[in-house]
Amino acid sequence: MELPVIDLATYLEVAAGGDSSPERSSGLTELCRGVSRILKETGALLVKDPRCTAEDNDRFIDMMEKYFEKPAEFKRLQERPFLHYQVGVTPEGVEVPRSLVDEEMQEKLRAMPKENQPSTPKGPDPKWRYMWRVGPRPLKTRFQELNSEPVIPEGFPEWKETMDSWGYKMISAIEASCLFGFACLHMIHPIKRLKLVCDVYSCLGCS
The organism sits in which domain of life (predicted)? Predict the structure, then answer.
């Protein structure tokens, strides 16, 4: 299955109070129709956000490759099992896929047509991962292990800025996609709808 790439540039411009001319409105209407169709047919969107550049992605990927190339002895210094691996690194073989232990999920998977059944893991996750929560921790929390201070590997002075910057951009792209998808699925007049949704979203304190 090939998904068309949806460019969010037009939506972002209109949502920010930019060009709302009849020509732009017509183009946005057609884009909304396309997004609505894709969501109904596939439930997924492949988007391009002009705020997320290839250079930003390369900077993030290069840093993560540099980190994961380090020996296991170095990476285990960032391991925090006593915090349930909610910060820092999680080594290979630690996480167990839910589908291996959840009988209800297993039944649902078996009930699916063979051609639609996902590949089921046979054991613990063989890959390493790094947990990084974007932005500052809450001042008060009942879930300390979920909001512990981030773990920054030694020798990576760019770590925090790179992780937070790329994380915020990913979150912003997801927020824009959700708002745009909502607007398209409930389309009345595209520009009025998009502005209305953005106003509501801002009032909820989510932007």
Answer: Eukaryota
**Distance in angstroms (rounded) separating the CA atoms of residues 207 and 201:** 7
In a domain, residue 23? The reply is yes
Answer yes or no: is 83 within a domain: no
Give the residue from 57, 59, 58 showing the smallest Cα distance to 156.
59
The H or E element spanning position 154 is none
Give how many domains the chain has, as a whole number. 1
- Pair 77, 112: CB distance under 8 Å: no
Residue 195, CA atoms < 13 Å, CB-side half-sphere: 11
The range of the structural domain enclosing residue 47 comes to 1-70+159-207
Distances (CA, A) of 81 to 91, 178, 191: 10, 34, 49
Per-residue model confidence as pLDDT tens digits over 125-155: 999 999 998 877 777 878 776 778 899 999 9
Task: Tell me the whole-structure pTM to 2 decimals.
Answer: 0.76
Answer whether 164's CB lies under 8 Å from 125's CB. Answer: no
For residue 24, being part of any structural domain is answered with yes
Say which residues have a Cβ less than 8 Å from residue 135's Cβ, sequence separation at least 6: 164, 167, 168
Residue 133 lies in a domain: no
